[in-house]
Amino acid sequence: MLRDKRQEYLVALLLVGPFVLIYGALFDWPTIQMAMLSFTKAPLIGAGDWVGWDNYAKILSHKLFHQAFWNTAYFVLLTVIPNTLISLVIALAVNRLKGPVQGFVLACFFLPYILPVSVVFLTWNWIIDVQYGLVQGLVALFNGGQPISLTRTIPLFMPTVAFVTIWWTMGFNILLFIAGLRNISPEIYEAASLDSAGRWRQFQRITWPLIWPVTALVLTIQLIAQLKIFDQVYLFSIGGRQDATITLVQYVYKLAFQQNKGGEAATAAMLLFGMIIILSVLQYQLLRARGEK
Description:
By secondary structure, the chain is mainly alpha-helical. It contains 13 helices and two strands; from the N terminus they run αββαααααααααααα.
């Protein structure tokens, strides 16, 4: 019996061991190194003097860090919940389709998700161009007949990039919701119909509670992804006032690669890392608790 147990532990170690080693080498060790670097005044490459918590005090008092924090928070507000709700509505509509039509429509919504960010940027930069953009006719209706640069006007920059981000990423969310909807037995809806329950009532009492775990997952994935927003904001802000639209990851990039401040960049990265962990875990636990109720 003892020998069998040892053999089971050995097999488990052989199966899990490679993953643990690779995960530790590629994630845990770099994270520890970054945490140690955040307490030094080091360049991007090379060692530096130990400064303790000075970097954290400096970063937290830096006006540009505050700007990056609020811009990131604003972007999260513009994308996470709207993206989830829009994806859910589209998934409900697509789920009612049947056969090849459903597959074709689902593919149309999912196609943008597989595009690289450079293609998304070039496509939408052409669509919203102030001189020949397709949407400028619509914009002119709300701007006294005059076109306006959506990415060079600071109040419109984040909503524009948020719209592009939702268009780009909602295909994956729709796919997750479709999977959740297909796990609901049709017999439940048939029983509800026999009880004269309308579509809205069925959604309230059947669909929404049963797909809540998927909704919590989508919200958590979106929160983590949008807290790390960089590519779209960076590309659309080229040639404009980048400091006014800077996000937290851009702030880390600016410190590390433009100012050669590796220690301060590591500090900003650790602060962002902590925020992502705290907010994502807190949100997921709150959503899970609501689902259990």
